[in-house]
Write a structure and sequence with these properties.
Length: 220
């Protein structure tokens, strides 16, 4: 599904290079549930953003379904991200002045999905995530767990090949967090590939493989 070869990321200041990632090799197959772990500053989120095409490496190669991502233009990468990758963030990233329904509809508007299909997909997600009764509410009227449920539904509505989750339960209480992780487990069992960044060993146990980072290097 995706391969990273010798991915390095650094920032230059004068003659000094500050390395965030160093020679990362990673392979993820369809249906995998992979966890990236490590202390703060280890490079976890940077790696996830590179995989999600929100950032570019300083050097190295990235293949997504055999496409050479490292050779594509920003617009081409954006198109792949928009059509094939769903992102779930710790802070939800819902649009405050849109209702739950409108938040779910927005990715489909970007993809120019026709009105009847948009309505059908949004209704399916509202039903699947048990948020039909919340569709006219705004994000600030929801609990943290409900907001994250909407965020996961929004990521899934484009029918992505890959879900990337950056500390998806970081702002939730233990019960809400467990609900979200069980949701990811169910999605993965249904065939959705997932890569999550987490500090939680409990959350990591939901996946099949753990990548541990330290100072930008893969430890295991």
């Amino acid at each position: 599904m995706l391969k990273l070869r010798n991915i390095t990321k650094y920032y230059s200041s004068g003659f000094v290079k500050t390395f965030v990632l160093r020679d990362i090799d990673l392979e993820v197959n369809e249906g995998d549930f992979v966890t990236i772990m490590g202390p703060s500053g280890a490079g976890k989120s940077t790696l996830l953003h590179i995989i999600g095409m929100l950032d570019t490496p300083s050097s190295g190669e990235y293949f997504f379904y055999d496409r050479e991502i490292h050779r594509l233009s920003e617009r081409q990468r954006s198109d792949i991200h928009k059509n094939h990758i769903g992102f779930v963030f710790q802070s939800y990233h819902l649009i405050d002045d849109l209702t739950v329904y409108e938040n779910l509809e927005t990715p489909l508007l970007y993809k120019k999905v026709k009105g009847s299909e948009r309505k059908s997909r949004v209704c399916d997600m509202l039903d699947k995530f048990n948020i039909v009764g919340k569709q006219k509410l705004f994000p600030n009227q929801l609990s943290g767990g409900q907001q994250q449920r909407v965020a996961v539904a929004r990521a899934l509505i484009i029918e992505p090949k890959l879900i990337l989750a950056d500390e998806p339960t970081g702002n939730l209480n233990s019960k809400e967090g467990e609900t979200i992780m069980e949701m990811f487990k169910e999605l993965n069992q249904g065939g959705t590939s997932i890569i999550q960044v987490t500090h939680s060993e409990k959350n990591a146990a939901y996946g099949q493989k753990i990548i541990r980072l330290l100072d930008g290097w893969v430890q295991e």
